[in-house]
Design brief:
single chain, 4-stranded mixed beta sheet, 25% helix, disordered C terminus
Length: 185
């Protein structure tokens, strides 16, 4: 007794198909990825799923890559913006300012500024010395507005908070040099 060689009914003619395609209803499995003949799809390096290819021809230049902003950049912007506010004498604690005075070439824009930077947001901590006689809440509000405006404008990061610690009040007589010979005679 002979066994039938095909599962198709006798009334259907045999189908011709290229040898590399599986029979109808079956799926061919392959362990390798074949490069597509067009650039319509590309394999993602971290997964096996395919996503539409991104060709540069139709996209805006701003979307062709990723921009990361270092914390030091945000610190400098925030430090400069805080120093621009009237009533701010300096940034940093008394110790940091004293060390900065000892090493004159080392005065840093980032002294008294600490930041946390995420992908889309940042938080800023400032340590400020204000001038004697100014309204500290008003100066703090101006610092916040100026820092938030500068950082968001320059980096497009959302500033979620600006914490301000007033560490000292600068007195007018602190900046006047003492007259020589007045203390001892």
């Amino acid at each position: 007794m002979t066994e039938p060689t095909s599962q198709r009914p006798m009334s259907q003619p045999p189908t011709s198909r290229p040898p590399h395609q599986p029979p109808e209803g079956r799926t061919q499995m392959s362990a390798t990825l074949h490069k597509p003949e067009s650039d319509e799809f590309r394999a993602d390096a971290d997964s096996t799923t395919l996503e539409p290819a991104r060709s540069g021809a139709g996209e805006a230049p701003a979307t062709r890559g990723r921009t990361s902003i270092a914390g030091g950049v945000v610190e400098k912007i925030a430090g400069m913006a805080a120093r621009e506010v009237p009533g701010v004498e300096s940034l940093g604690s008394g110790l940091a300012r004293t060390l900065g005075a000892i090493r004159p070439g080392r005065a840093s824009v980032t002294r008294g500024v600490k930041v946390e930077v995420g992908e889309r947001q940042t938080a800023i901590d400032l340590e400020v010395v204000v001038e004697y006689g100014v309204s500290i809440p008003e100066v703090a509000a101006e610092i916040r507005m100026n820092v938030i405006g500068a950082v968001e404008r320059m980096t497009e990061l959302e500033v979620v908070e600006v914490n301000i610690a007033v560490s000292d009040v600068h007195l007018p007589e602190e900046s006047e040099p003492e007259a020589s010979g007045t203390r001892l005679q």
